[in-house]
């Protein structure tokens, strides 16, 4: 078939790759001059099934309420005139029961773990340099009580096959000597040795180059403007460079998917949740981190991509606004500098903000709705790099009429 993929983030590009592997002719449409230039550019790069916990948990309503009154929280909920914020928030709150949080977390973990296995297949077959680090991820706590709660929560993922190791302070410092200066402040950690990190934009661009080399038609600088339909079929995609026609179409435009889907009567509750990141050269600093870490107390994530650190934080409801100012990064920079004072050249930090395409369940949308040849692969939220490879393979399976390798109950709408 000739298949048109809409969107060139990590989800669109991995989908194009899997479809091409199946023997299809692929055309990918991306509005930016290069692929992976939106949310897939500046994320923390964590391939982290160990981080599969959904945000729609029983604690979420209180955290949202608190953020209305207390400023500078890791989560910033702001009232706005956008009615979609409220319809989305209502659906999100409906997912916040203990039972649904448990169910959604396990579904997400299933997809994330499968996705990591597909990533491993891909990197086993392809030569893509993306600053991979496979020393696991250290989820560390500063407070003994919080550590105990974190361990208890992790047992849920462990019951689904996640490997976890509980480390006391000495073991943390043995694994990560770069934290020695703050050792006294660390109660302990959960180490997920099979979690990993790597630069998602480097990976996506490397993979896109392979798809193009093998005959894929990657059209960058082309904006999708409309989906053309007749009856229950898509007949073409209107773009800034004319209409593009195929046999099947995949919607993978991240936060922009919802708006386009609405124009053909599909309601996809995907709302942007903004996050911030810093990319900091290690320079000649002697003690950069060697293992990716999440400071669970401050909700700051730190990854090492070769000669750079990537630091991310904050979940903010700011509509589609991606602007940022130095003050937005002050806290995450201060936390990172406290943890790794000799870890990077902090004066040369590059600032970035991006939008997580969040769904109320925190699970992406797959499969078809109403339009027989339009497939969804979108809404990957806060761990879309982690879930992209499996999601791409699942989409290729659904298009081929194959049964995906993991059970899809609860994942297909
Ligand atoms: C601060 C932060 C930290 C994160 N950390 C992690 C992490 O550590 N691990 C992890 O797994 N995930 C992480 N994520 C989430 C992850 O980045 C996203 O889930 C993922 O990048 C989503 O990929 P995507 O391809 O769906 O969206 P995008 O990367 O946004 O791609 C969508 C593409 O569609 C294109 N597009 C949109 N509209 C049009 C149009 N009209 N015409 C043509 N093209 C269009 C866009 O230009 C874009 O390239 C993080 C996110 C943030 C913000």
From TrEMBL:
Q: Which Gene3D superfamilies match?
A: D-Amino Acid Oxidase, subunit A, domain 2, FAD/NAD(P)-binding domain
InterPro entries, alphabetized: FAD-dep_OxRdtase, FAD/NAD-bd_sf
What Pfam families would the database entry show? DAO (PF01266)
Enzyme class, spelled out: oxidoreductase
The catalytic activity of this protein is classed by the Enzyme Commission as: 1.4.99.-
Query: Which top-rank group of organisms is this from?
Result: Bacteria
Residue ranges constituting the FAD dependent oxidoreductase domain according to the UniProt record = 2-398
Q: Which UniProt keywords apply?
A: Oxidoreductase
Which is one GO molecular function term here? oxidoreductase activity
Spell out the family assignment given in the record's similarity comment.
Belongs to the DadA oxidoreductase family.
Q: What is this protein called?
A: D-amino acid dehydrogenase
């Amino acid at each position: 078939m000739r298949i048109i993929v809409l969107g060139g983030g990590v989800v669109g590009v991995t989908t194009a790759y899997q479809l091409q592997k199946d023997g299809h002719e692929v055309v990918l449409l991306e509005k930016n001059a290069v692929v992976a230039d939106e949310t897939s550019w500046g994320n923390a790069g964590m391939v982290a099934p160990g981080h599969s916990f959904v945000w729609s948990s029983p604690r979420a309503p209180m955290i949202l309420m608190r953020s209305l009154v207390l400023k500078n929280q890791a989560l910033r909920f702001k009232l706005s005139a956008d009615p979609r914020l409220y319809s989305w928030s209502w659906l999100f709150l409906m997912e916040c029961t203990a039972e649904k949080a448990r169910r959604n977390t396990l579904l997400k973990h299933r997809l994330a773990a499968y996705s990591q296995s597909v990533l491993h297949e891909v990197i086993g077959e392809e030569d893509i340099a993306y600053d991979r680090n496979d020393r696991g991820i250290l989820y560390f706590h500063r407070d003994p009580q919080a550590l105990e709660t974190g361990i208890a929560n992790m047992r849920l993922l462990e019951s689904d096959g996640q490997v976890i190791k509980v480390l006391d302070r000495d073991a943390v410092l043995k694994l990560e000597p770069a934290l020695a200066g703050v050792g006294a402040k660390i109660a302990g950690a959960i180490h997920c040795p099979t979690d990993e990190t790597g630069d998602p934009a480097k990976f996506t661009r490397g993979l896109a180059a392979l798809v193009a080399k093998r005959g894929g038609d990657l059209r960058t600088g082309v904006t999708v403007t409309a989906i053309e339909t007749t009856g229950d079929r898509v007949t073409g995609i209107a773009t800034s460079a004319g209409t593009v026609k195929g046999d099947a179409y995949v919607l993978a435009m991240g936060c922009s998917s919802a708006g386009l889907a609405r124009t053909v009567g599909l309601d996809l509750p995907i709302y942007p949740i903004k996050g911030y990141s810093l990319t900091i050269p290690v320079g000649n600093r002697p003690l950069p981190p060697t293992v990716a870490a999440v400071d669970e107390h401050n909700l700051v994530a730190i990854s090492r991509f070769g000669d750079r650190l990537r630091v991310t934080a904050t979940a903010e409801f700011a509509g589609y606004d991606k602007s940022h100012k130095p003050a937005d990064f002050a806290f995450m920079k201060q936390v990172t500098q406290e943890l790794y004072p000799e870890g990077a050249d902090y004066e040369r930090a590059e600032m970035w903000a991006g939008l997580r395409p969040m769904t109320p369940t925190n699970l992406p949308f797959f499969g078809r709705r109403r339009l027989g040849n339009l497939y969804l692969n979108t809404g990957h939220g806060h761990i879309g790099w982690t879930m992209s490879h499996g999601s791409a393979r699942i989409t290729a399976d659904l298009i081929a009429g194959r049964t995906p390798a993991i059970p899809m109950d609860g994942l297909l709408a």
